[in-house]
Amino acid sequence: MKFIPHDYQKVAKEFALDRQASGLFLDMGLGKTVITLTAIEELKNDYLDMNKTLVIAPKRVAEDTWTTEYEKWDHLKDLKVVRVLGTVKERKLALAKEGDIYIITRDNVAWLVELLGRRWDFDTVVIDELSSFKSGKSKRFKKLRTVRPFIKRIIGLTGTPAPNGYEDLWAQIYLLDRGERLGKTITEFRKRYFNTLYRHGYNDYELRPGAKEEIDEALKDLCISMKAKDYLKLKEPLYINRMAKLGKKEFETYKKMERDAVLEIGDEDITALSAAAVTNKLLQLANGAIYTDTREVKTIHDKKLEVLEELIEEANGEPVLVFYNFQHDKDRILERFKDARILDTEQDIKDWNDKKIKILIAHPASTGHGLNLQSGGSIIIWFGLNWSLELYLQANARLNRQGQTETVRIYHIITEKTVDERVLEVLNGKNLNQEELLRKLKAELREVA
């Protein structure tokens, strides 16, 4: 696919190319990954100013997103990307491979620094979700700090660098400029910009009058900030697919269920009821759990929960509205995210619109016509899709309606190579229904046989 960058993407790329250290504080949906990969490609081939790049990312983003993104675009095809993942042995073997970009999870940063030490040979480092380094006390920050002098160029990526306040900025900015702008230590940073408040035996810190503006001024040559509402001026919402990839064993389980469920019907006439039963089983499995014949829940995988966790983290404190399909989806989401709330009462609606809820969970059937949620947020995440185009459109219209001031971003979490992809075709208006889907499945099985 040919990459035709938007003007704002060109600006962000040039900002990174013009500086040895830069923070790209770009909202979700603006293309941080492809912008950064394009900058790396130009550094390597046009500027001849890059040898080896290390990308530090959250687990699933490291496993999938960066690889998928570089494979998508024609101009990146010559880059050699190596994933430094898996066991210690597998990671060491990966490091020994020839490559341009090496991708590692942030949980293995300390391991890598301890392994290489002064032999650190990554001249360029990209930190995806820089805000995950906001604690100066974390091991990952302390270790990366020790090799910062060996890093020639560094790029930090995040949507909102200070979701909990400006105090979060110090460690992140230190990794970019080694303390040049905000101070060499967190103590120096606090003394310069904060008042100390003593609360019941511990210290709290409050920005001094005018300090926010001083910090913003100090960082303007180092960081660029872009909000989706300023650049994604679309009449329609922005639709984004995020893929969940099953492991080999999990995929084999899915394919067996697919085969067994379809073959249960055999050659009998396909009815809407039988098609719905089969495809609902497959949708459950794609989501990660399934009901047994006794209505017990059997968990198969957590891949979608992992993607949901990453999307919530990327939102950096922005409220998200999560739509689920099955009861066990809701239960697993609530178990994973303790601060999530179910949309149930008028008070829930009020609290959401007052931005008191960060994660709101709802079934699309419970958010019918006329329900106004647009004041509470602009991010929708579909944990599990269903076949009803009417429900899908109605649910999306809860945020994408008159009075919404932001571009609505609608994320679909899609389990790769499953019925999820076919349901998305239906919702995208393709001429495919459940009965046709089942016929396709049976045809595929005959081909395999």
What does this structure look like?
The protein is α/β, with parallel strands linked by helices. It has two domains: 7-227, Rossmann fold, CATH 3.40.50; 234-449, 3-Layer(aba) Sandwich (Rossmann fold). It is 43% helix and 18% strand. The protein contains 18 helices and 17 strands. The chain has helices at 7-17, 32-45, 59-72, 88-95, 109-116, 139-147, 169-177, 186-193, 211-219, 228-231, 248-265, 272-287, 303-315, 327-336, 346-353, 389-396, 419-427, 434-448, and strands at residues 21-26, 53-57, 81-83, 101-105, 124-128, 153-158, 194-199, 202-207, 223-226, 238-244, 289-291, 297-299, 320-323, 341-342, 359-362, 379-382, 409-415. Strand 5, helix 6 and strand 6 form a beta-alpha-beta unit. The radius of gyration is 24 Å and the shape is globular. It starts with 6 loop residues before the first helix and ends with a helix. The model is unreliable at 267-273 (pLDDT under 50).
